[in-house]
Design goal:
Blueprint: E1 5-14, E2 21-28, E3 34-37, E4 43-46, E5 51-60, E6 64-73, E7 86-94, E8 102-109, E9 112-117, E10 120-133, E11 139-140, E12 146-150, E13 164-168, E14 171-172, E15 177-188, H1 195-200, H2 208-223, E16 227-238, E17 242-256, H3 258-275, H4 286-293, H5 297-303, H6 309-312, H7 316-332
Helix pairs in contact: 2-3, 3-7
Length: 333
C-alpha cells in the first residue's frame, strides 16, 4: 500500500470435527503487542464441520514493512504448548507517497459506548485522522482547527456539532505525518422522550420509572448493535498554504451498558409494583418535618417542601427512583 491507511484482515478457520469448536487466540504486531483478540472476548466458536471468517481492520502509519502474526489454539489461547497450536503471519509494505500536497492516509473512530448516568445515557466518540505532508517544505498549524460532525441518526443527541480537537505535532516536516484527534459527546436523556409519556407518568413525579424504563427500551431497541456513518469536516489553518479543508466518512458501532439497562428496567418494574400509587408528598412525611425544624430559619425557608412549590410535588415515587438511579450510576461508573 502507499502512504499508509486502513488495512483489512480476514482470518478463516475450518472445523472438521462433528461438534462445535471453541478457538482462542490473538493477533500481534511486529513489536509483539496484541492488537486484537479472536471474537473480541478471545473465544471464537465454529459450528461442526463449518468454516467461519473473522475480520478486523487496523490503521498503519509511516513508511515501513509491517509483520502481523496470528496465534490460535483449542485450549487456553496462550502459546504454552497446550493443545493444538497454530501460528500464521502476514507482511504489509507501506511505500512512500508520490507527488506533492497533503494526503489523507488514515482514519479510525472508536466504538460509541453509552453508559448509564442517572437514567440518561452518555457516550463520547474519539476519532483520529492522519494526514501526510507531501510538500518539500515544513508546515505549521497556526490557528484553531474547526471541526464539524454529522452523526446521521444520532445528530439530535450530539451535545455540540463543533468537536473538541487537538493536533500532534503542530509543525509537520516534509514527508512526515500528523494526526488530528477529535472527541464528540452524546447524551440520550429522558427529557427527549415523547411528551405523552411524561404526561401519563405525572410529569415524571408520580411514576418517574415509566419514563426511565422507556429510555432504556429506546436505547436498547433503536441503537444497540447498530453501525452508523460518521462524517467529520476539518478546516485546518497552515502558515504557508492557508486554510485547508478535509472531509472523511467513517462508521462506528454502537454499544450500550446492557447490565445497567437490564437492572434499571427490572428495578422500574419492581418499584411500579411495590409503590403503586404511593404519591405522598415529602412535605407530609413526619421525619422530614422533624429534620427541617432543626435547621436555621433562613436555610429551612429555602429547602422546605412546605414553602418551596417544586419540592411540594416530590413524591415517594420520585425519591425512590432517584435513589435507584444514583445506585446504578455509581455501581456501573
Amino acid at each position: 500500500m502507499t502512504g499508509g491507511g486502513m488495512v483489512y484482515f480476514t482470518v478463516k478457520v475450518r472445523n472438521y470435527r462433528p461438534d462445535k469448536l471453541d478457538v482462542r487466540g490473538f493477533i500481534e504486531d511486529e513489536a509483539g503487542a496484541v492488537i486484537v483478540k479472536m471474537g473480541d472476548s478471545g473465544v471464537y466458536t465454529i459450528p461442526a464441520r463449518e468454516e467461519k471468517s473473522f475480520s478486523f481492520s487496523y490503521t498503519l502509519y509511516g513508511i515501513a514493512n509491517h509483520t502481523f502474526k496470528l496465534f490460535i489454539d483449542n485450549t487456553d489461547g496462550k502459546p504454552n504448548g497446550n493443545g493444538d497450536e497454530k501460528w500464521k503471519k502476514v507482511k504489509v509494505e507501506v511505500k512512500p507517497i508520490k507527488g506533492i500536497g497533503l494526503k489523507q492516509v488514515g482514519v479510525e473512530c472508536d466504538n460509541l459506548y453509552f453508559k448509564y448516568d442517572m437514567g440518561n445515557y452518555k457516550a463520547k466518540l474519539a476519532c483520529k485522522f492522519v494526514i501526510y505532508n507531501g510538500y518539500n517544505f515544513s508546515l505549521e498549524v497556526n490557528g484553531k482547527i474547526m471541526a464539524k460532525m454529522n452523526a446521521s441518526v444520532l445528530n439530535k443527541y450530539l451535545q455540540s456539532d463543533s468537536l473538541v480537537t487537538s493536533i500532534n505535532p503542530h509543525t509537520i516536516s516534509a514527508g512526515q505525518y500528523f494526526a488530528i484527534n477529535s472527541t464528540a459527546y452524546f447524551e440520550i436523556s429522558k427529557s427527549s422522550l415523547p411528551r405523552l409519556i411524561r404526561v401519563l407518568s405525572g410529569a415524571g413525579l408520580i411514576f418517574p420509572y415509566w419514563e426511565d424504563a422507556a429510555n432504556d427500551i429506546r436505547v436498547e431497541t433503536e441503537f444497540y448493535g447498530a453501525t452508523i456513518p460518521i462524517e467529520i469536516t476539518y478546516d485546518v489553518p497552515f502558515d504557508r498554504i492557508g486554510i485547508q479543508r478535509f472531509t472523511f466518512i467513517e462508521s462506528t458501532y454502537i454499544e450500550v451498558d446492557q447490565i445497567a439497562v437490564v437492572t434499571d428496567v427490572a428495578t422500574d418494574v419492581f418499584l411500579t409494583y411495590e409503590l403503586k400509587t404511593k404519591t405522598i408528598p415529602l412535605a407530609d412525611i413526619e421525619f422530614i418535618q422533624n429534620a427541617l425544624n432543626k435547621l436555621p430559619p433562613s436555610i429551612r425557608q429555602k429547602v422546605s417542601p412546605i414553602t418551596n412549590p417544586l419540592l411540594q410535588q416530590i413524591s415517594i415515587n420520585w425519591l425512590a427512583n432517584w435513589m435507584k438511579e444514583k445506585l446504578i450510576t455509581e455501581w456501573r461508573g
